[in-house]
Amino acid sequence: MFNLCMFYVKLCLRIYITHNLTVKLITFYITEDAEQENRTMYLYLKGRALNVMPQHSKEAEELLSRAVKLDPKLVDAWNELGECYWKKDNMEEAKNCFYGALLHV
Known about the structure:
Blueprint: H1 2-29, H2 36-50, H3 58-70, H4 75-87, H5 91-103
């Protein structure tokens, strides 16, 4: 049982470190002041990286919302935003996001 607990702790630590590094790399390589297309991708990628964690991230929600406003045809951002609302237990908004994604497929 102890070995299983240690494995889980190490796995969580690796996920946390990978998550933080991903967010830092995205922020380093793509600035928010880039052209609109790049800015949309920056917002989406950073929001997606922040949305990896099992709990709701307000920052991820804000970034993904901005991404879909800038490019409503970005289906992946709609789906990621829907998952973000799902984690927040806001099923109506999640459904709207998934529906928004289907409109642009």
